[in-house]
Amino acid sequence: MSRISKVGLIGVPYNVGWMGPGVDEGARAFRDAGLVDELKKVVSEVVDYGDVEVRLPPRDGGNPKLLNPEQVEAVCKSLATMVHSTLDRGYFPLIIGEKTAFSWE
């Protein structure tokens, strides 16, 4: 089993699939709490690639089991691009600050 030695931090400061407050502040809160410094204690290299940037389509609350599906899709596509780029550089992508909520009932 290989050990992770390089971490690429990616923030997702969006609250698109969840109605609760504060989700969009998660990435900043982790950084402010010293996440990068703590990671440097256990891996050889940490690069903070910043936050995903997304042009969000309008909000859509029409489906109570999946809020804002077009916004969720837009965030996921942008995040996927950043994850791919991070992996191409040889870093393990650590994604912070994103939550989506689904109800399967």
Structural account:
- The structure is a single chain.
- By secondary structure, the protein is α/β, with parallel strands linked by helices.
- It contains three helices and three strands.
- A three-stranded parallel β-sheet has the order 2-1-3.
Question: Could you name the key traits of this structure?
Answer:
105 residues, alpha/beta, 3 helices, 30% helix, 17% strand
Secondary structure topology:
Elements: E1 6-11, H1 26-32, H2 35-39, E2 45-51, H3 69-88, E3 92-96
Q: How many separate domains? A: 1
Give the terminus-to-terminus CA distance: 38 Å
> Mean pLDDT, rounded to whole units?
86
**Structural Rg:** 15 Å
Overall helicity: 25-40%
Strand order of the largest sheet: 2-1-3
- Note the run of SSEs as H and E: EHHEHE
The percentage of residues in β strands lies in 15-25%
Total count of strands:
3
Q: What coarse outline follows from CA principal-axis ratios?
A: elongated
Number of helices: 3
- Secondary-structure-based class equals alpha/beta
- Unreliable residue runs: 100-105
The largest β sheet comes out as: 3 strands, parallel
